[in-house]
Batch of 2 targets.
Target 1
Amino acid sequence: MGLQTGSLPDFPWDTLTPFGEVARAFPGGIVDLSVGTPVDPTPAVVQQALADAADSPGYPTTHGTPALRHAVVEWFARRRGVRGLDPAAVLPTVGSKELVAFLPSLLGLGAGDVVLHPSAAYPTYDVGARLAGATPEPTDDPASRLAQSDDVRLVWLNSPGNPDGSVLGVDQLRAVVDAARASARPVVVASDECYAELGWDEPWVSSGVPSILDPRVTGGDLTGLLAVYSLSKQSNLAGYRAAFVAGDPALVARLLEIRKHAGMIVPGPVQAAMTAALADDAHVEAQRTVYGRRRRVLRAAFESAGYAVDRSHAGLYLWVRPEAGDQDSWATVGDLAGLGILVAPGAFYGDPVHVRVALTAPDERIAEAAARLSGA
């Protein structure tokens, strides 16, 4: 097994630079809705926990402190309907992107192995497969694809989805798990659930976004299942690189052993901050209210300006296209850049028509974007 860097695509965000320059030249400056990076303050309770743990001269534990792993277990029970999770089956990671990128390699995948991921997807699922020498394959029906042959070794699910805000219900999740378990070869199902606290439409507002670890999905058996979660979105901790993976105790133990050898450790003060963040629901609700307000303003503005908003049931983005016709996503990026608004083309994510609009801009800039769309 080796890292197969020769087959990697170009880093997509570099191609957006000329459109950013156009947007910056607009009177009043750019409204950057392209990257979903939080802009609101890190919650005070989290900052205080980080400061209190700042005297940290010794090496942190790779597995995470008992307090952190217990906080994850309690969070799953309280917020996700997953009770009885084994604290040993929890592992903090340095943000979620590094785990997504390296999971195929850590699982020992290589030539001849297929990694499934959503058709409209975060590019790192594809990149991670390529790094391992495996074959990435987009699909909107992983259960059917699993039934076709036994070459699939890893299935990435992403719910709520980045970029399109789609949500997988319990029945859809269970169908994938059942198909994976029916395969002649072991198949890992990994679910990237980083936007789970940001449901906007029913039934997800009332019932919550289901996890791959939900007992209605697993039947009480976590074998072959991993859930990935990041505190970047719910707690404005993108700069902390604070995330975790949980699920099958045997899989987590394997990941832990490799990460011990590689020195992939979340810093001790960050572990303390994560523990505080997971125990405090108030700041999560407050931030959700902020994003909900921005979402309403932007959605109304885009729809009034002749755009359609598809899916977008949860998460930090609107999935937008011109209401009339099938204009290429890059052309839509150009149109909006001409108004000083920078968005991400669906082409980054495998969709030729839509653009992704982030809710992560200050209220003043959100209002400015809405005004420009109204003027257009």
Target 2
Amino acid sequence: MNTLTTLELRPVEVPTDLDGPAARDFHRLAVIRNKVCREISGTDDDRMTPGELAPIARSDRHEKRLHWLVLVEDEPVGRMGMDLPLENGSRTAYVFIELRRDAWGQGIGERAHALLEETARAHGRSVMQSWVEHPAADGEQLTPPTGFGTVPLDHPARFLLRHGYTLEQIMRKSAFTLARSRAALERHAADARAASTDYRVVQWETPTPDEYVDGYAWMKSRMSTDAPSADLVVDEETWDAERVRAWDAEILDGGRRMLVTAAQHIATGELCAFNELVLGVDPDIASHQYDTLVLSTHRGHRLGMLVKAEGLLAWPRVAPASTRVVTYNAEENRPMLDINEAIGFEPVSYEGVWKRVLS
């Protein structure tokens, strides 16, 4: 039977009641997501329950999120999606197509991409961007214009090149084993404290305390402007107290926990660096290090090392069963990679960040 004759790209809404009959397709979407993630990475680092995924997948006033279940004879073989930032003037659609490997080469990706392009145009977007994990492989490699990092010319890369995408950036996925050397972490933290005597460390678990909301919001907004982004199209994000509270709710509603470690300038009370560590519902799989940033006006005081090391030292109290922490960094972000490597993070895999400008 021709696969395409039984192919369905079924829109999936994120249900309010995850136990109701309307949630069936969302549960199936979560299952196939986890299967494909494991097939690509060989680990369960990114596994999520439907309850964890739902708050992340729902649209809000800052981003419209669309999802489709890819079905062949009503069997899920993948999923696809699109995130549409709602910042004023945004022209970007963030897209993904994730298929089981046994579904490759049957024209399914072609149909899925055509729908994503049609949808992006319908929403007035002129740029499509995608993050794709490329497992290491021998053979020809691709290098982005930044000159930092490579990914193999594999099946996903050939697909993207065929559809007019250009490789713009490489993201390094790194992992750290918490039990490896607490003594070394303590030394790094002590050295960073000695270099940053004008600052103190403050920590909190989500929800964010009122006294830190405004400072945290400002730092989160700078992630969209200060982090290396190569030649990608990145909207400047506006963060305020309302958005921080929505972010807090996204973490808590999914049953996750987040520890924020920040550096506060003693003289002014300004928050000027931060690091986020997140634990999912399953305490035995990897924790994730989300955003880390030092405001440009406070660089040069080892604050990046300070917030990372202090966060990792405190993390066993929050997540005693989690032994592994995963993080992502741009390959050209040498200052942050230097910190990670000094701490003991080791490369695991690489993501290509791809861009297509629509005609």
